Description:
Its EC number is 2.4.1.-. It is a single chain. The chain is α/β, with parallel strands linked by helices. The protein has one domain (about 35-450): Alpha-Beta Barrel (TIM Barrel). It is built from 13 helices and 15 strands. It has helices at about 1-15, 60-75, 90-100, 120, 125-140, 165-180, 200-205, 235-240, 270, 275, 310-320, 365-370, 395-405, and strands at about 25, 30-35, 35-40, 40-45, 75-80, 100-105, 145-150, 185-190, 215-220, 250-255, 280-285, 300, 305, 435-440, 445-450. The protein has an eight-stranded parallel beta barrel with strand order 4-5-6-7-8-9-10-11. The chain starts with a helix and ends in a 5-residue tail after the last strand. The structure holds 2-acetamido-2-deoxy-beta-D-glucopyranose (5 copies).
Amino acid sequence: MKTTSFLLSTAICLASLASSLDPITVKGNAFYQGNDRFYIRGVDYQPGGSSKAIDPLADADNCKRDVPYFKDLGLNTIRVYTVDNSANHDECMQELSDAGIYLLLDVNTPKNSINRADPAPSYNADYLQAVFATIDAFKGYDNVLGFFAGNEVINSVNTTGPAPYVKAVVRDMKSYISAQSKRAIPVGYSAADIAQNRWQQMEYFNCGDDSERIDLFGMNDYSWCGPASSFQISGYQANVQNYGNYSLPLFFSEYGCNTVQPRTFPEISAIYNTEMTSVYSGGLVYEYSSEGNDYGLVNITGSNVTTLSDYDALKSQLAKYPDPTGAGGASTTNSAASCPPFQSGLWEVDPSSSLPALPSGAETYIKNGAGKPLGLSGPSTQFGSSSDDDNGSSSASASATASSGAASSGGSSTASAKATHTSKGAAGHVEVPHFLTTTVLGAGAYITVFFAIGLAL
Ligand SMILES: *[C@@H]1O[C@H](CO)[C@@H](O)[C@H](O)[C@H]1NC(C)=O
Ligand SMILES: *[C@@H]1O[C@H](CO)[C@@H](O)[C@H](O)[C@H]1NC(C)=O
Ligand SMILES: *[C@@H]1O[C@H](CO)[C@@H](O)[C@H](O)[C@H]1NC(C)=O
Ligand SMILES: *[C@@H]1O[C@H](CO)[C@@H](O)[C@H](O)[C@H]1NC(C)=O
Ligand SMILES: *[C@@H]1O[C@H](CO)[C@@H](O)[C@H](O)[C@H]1NC(C)=O
């Protein structure tokens, strides 16, 4: 038996090495594939929607069904919001690799994430074990472009409190990768479409010691709506100017406003043009599959895929606007930003305070590895860690609290809230209230309004 399993694991190991892509590297404010600048041409991919928390990369049939469409669209990257760290991903990752496609992966799940409403208890050793086990599940694949430590945890001007916890997660992920991974896989953050404090977020996650700075910054941005908008009207031009000194790769981790239907993706003419490429490195369209919220490129029914008009539009726009040649204006310096000042009602983080300390109990994971992955059916860590001696029963009471939905007014959703014009938000979240974001455009600026629309499902 021993021999068999050895041979089996050798075979699996060889299989996963069978073909590989050059890992993407970060230099200055840009991505590189070998010596060539790399621009993300991507879609966000979570068929079934995030509320169901189904790992799309654990099902080889799904990948066989969808990867040919990614290829047909001309993509080189997908983003996935939720995976099961106990599942096997070899086949899907190989399918993607064979198609020349990289993965940006969010490490959080509905049960394992920083709780926006009450971050301190959610930052615990059990939570980090889940995050680290997800890194373990993917660190061996050359086509992992990077990990997102968080998505839209800060989703308004007055939810900046969790920022130090998210940054602590960045720090811990970097420590873990440095101790437990052969490759230095980039770690980033994906920010909500909040114009008011986006710059503060960019600077905050990029300030301080290298060991706690992110390596890439994704912005979810729905500001270019239809053909009547433009480089200027959308605010893209102002962003290029305002973010021109940003020292890390910047890209749209979600884009594709849907208030004008059908979508024709005129913004692609700017995104891959030198008017933007000195500051931006492409982006990912929200989202591949239709989840009943008017963002889909395709309808999926079982094993059948039906392409929609958005699909054809995206494909034709991506084909029409190739990457610029050469470096596209990228800069090569990557110096730390200064931490943004405390501003009441806008950015309520003291720039001189240090990050929350690594929870005791998590040190062993960094040193010895995360151990057994608990998958999507493992315990919720959002309200405390079951391994905290002082809070031994917190996990059980946490689940009770979670199902009643009483204690929490928000969590870090695994996919973004952006339910403009829909009856159902994209932000699936099993255990916490939904947030519904409405983006109202006006004179080049936008305001984001939040509604908490109910409690647990
Ligand atoms: C956030 O700020 C808005 C606008 O000032 C206010 O209406 C809202 O109550 C605040 N929310 C929280 C959770 O403080
Ligand atoms: C960018 O850096 C230059 C030189 O340091 C400085 O003059 C300029 O104000 C900066 N721009 C922004 C938007 O920070
Ligand atoms: C895609 O699915 C939506 C929702 O089920 C449906 O209304 C629409 O007709 C479908 N489109 C195609 C082309 O199948
Ligand atoms: C998929 O398409 C085939 C061929 O058109 C059809 O026979 C089958 O019923 C479809 N399956 C589903 C689940 O819609
Ligand atoms: C236990 O939980 C309480 C309340 O959430 C918290 O204040 C305390 O720091 C926790 N103790 C430990 C050891 O985590």
